[in-house]
Design goal:
Blueprint lengths: L18 H4 L9 E2 L5 E4 L7 E4 L2 E2 L5 E6 L11 E10 L5 E4 L8 E4 L8 H5 L1 H6 L9 E7 H5 L6 H9 L7 E11 L4 E3 L8 E5 L2 E6 L11 E8 L8 E11 L7 E2 L6 E5 L8 H7 L7 E6 L10 E2 L5 E3 L5 E11 L34
Parallel strand pairs: 1-4
Antiparallel strand pairs: 2-3, 5-9, 6-7, 6-8, 6-10, 9-10, 11-14, 12-13, 14-18, 15-16, 15-17, 15-21, 18-21, 19-20
InterPro entries: PPIase_dom_sf, PPIase_FKBP_dom
EC number: 5.2.1.8
Family: Belongs to the FKBP-type PPIase family.
């Protein structure tokens, strides 16, 4: 039997022997309580839960309870959801992660999915498995699970191991998740009739696949923002991080040069000195409410300018001086966590460097 590696916080899971051995169960520890016997919960859906601990949470197989039954739309297998959740460590009683914080974006989860795509997908797998078709948006779920059960098969993955270390999760901690099923991934708000001259959106199974420029006048040479859905969420402010789905295309392009709808939502900072997108995104999206779907027409001066963009094989995907068109769904927005003050440097030397990117992602060229 292996000694539990709960503490110290310097635990490096990537140096352990293979996960199948390193996370072997040691049995219930002295003084540990099972499931909801270890805590009580309070708080409203949409707000961070308050946890009153009665003891240490035992690491066991996943167990879930519906705390609040929602009254929103019914959920089906395969639906992609936006979910707010708090992860509380049942050993330390500390909140290890919370999307209820102002500087955190919601998580996405696909109902019925079996293969995780990101480290966060691995972390939230027990919550995903507790979501059942027929439940409704607005539901709040509590899930308890041992870290050995949840993460054991994936600790050979550097990203998962690093995440566990950064959250101070030991190899046999009891974990508590409280999750709110917030909305479907997509625009939420009031539909608007598109302005004349707006490209059409070609969809497959309700998902944008390309833009249709048939009968649409030439490029205007200006930044144009056309709202197709006016969102019902908070307004995006300068310097925030946003989560979006998007598709980008040029008028002459036979297919999109980039899109996120078929993979995972894209995150970026818009506006301000830390902006990580082309200026057209920052100027076009700041001030719009979360839940909006818009089409942006971005002139070259606010896009990639005279620089042609190429893919990994060196093929030009966006010619120089191209006007860029995007359909964008604003899914969430959050404040950017303040960076820690840098330590004073003992060296008086400084260096600067410039780099250029050949990626066509809107995150790769810069700023506002």
């Amino acid at each position: 039997m292996l000694k539990r590696l709960r503490r110290p916080t310097t635990l490096v899971l990537t140096t352990l022997i293979p996960a199948s051995l390193a996370l072997a169960a040691c049995g219930e520890g002295e003084g540990e309580l099972k499931g909801s016997d270890a805590f009580s919960l309070s708080g409203e859906v949409g707000e961070a839960p308050a946890v009153d601990w009665k003891g240490t949470l035992a690491p066991e197989k996943a167990s879930s309870t519906v705390l609040v039954e929602g009254d929103g739309a019914e959920i089906s297998d395969g639906d992609e959801l936006l979910m707010d959740f708090a992860l509380v460590n049942g050993y330390t009683h500390k909140v290890d992660y919370s999307t209820f914080d102002a500087d955190a974006l919601a998580a996405t989860v696909t109902v019925g999915a079996t293969e995780p795509e990101t480290a966060l997908d691995v972390l939230t797998a027990a919550v995903r498995d507790a979501i059942e078709p027929g439940q409704k948006l607005g539901t709040r779920i509590a899930v308890t699970v041992g870290s050995d059960v949840l993460l054991g098969d994936y600790l050979g993955n550097e990203a998962v191991a690093g995440m566990a270390v950064s959250m101070d999760i030991g190899n046999e901690d009891g974990l508590l998740f409280v999750a709110d099923l917030r909305s479907f991934v997509g625009p939420t708000g009031t539909e608007q009739k598109p302005a004349a001259g707006t490209p059409g959106i070609v969809e497959k199974d309700g998902v944008p696949t390309k833009l249709d420029f048939a009968g649409i006048p030439g490029d205007s040479g200006k930044l144009k923002v056309t709202s197709l859905v006016v969102g019902d969420g908070p307004v995006v402010t300068k310097g925030q991080q946003i989560m979006v789905n998007y598709l980008g295309q040029t008028r002459t392009g036979k297919a999109p040069f980039d899109e996120s709808y078929a993979s995972t939502p894209f995150t970026a900072v818009v506006g301000g000195p830390s902006a990580s997108v082309v200026k057209g995104w920052s100027r076009g999206l700041v001030g719009l409410p979360v839940g909006s779907r818009v089409i942006l027409e971005i002139p070259p001066s606010l896009g990639y300018g005279k620089e042609a963009q190429k893919d990994d094989q060196g093929k030009v995907t966006i010619p120089a001086n191209s006007t860029l068109y995007f359909v964008i769904d604003i899914l969430d927005a959050a404040d950017v966590e303040a960076a820690a003050e840098p330590e004073p440097s003992e060296s008086a030397s400084e260096s600067t460097s410039e780099s250029t990117s050949e990626s066509t992602s809107p995150s790769e060229t810069a700023s506002e």
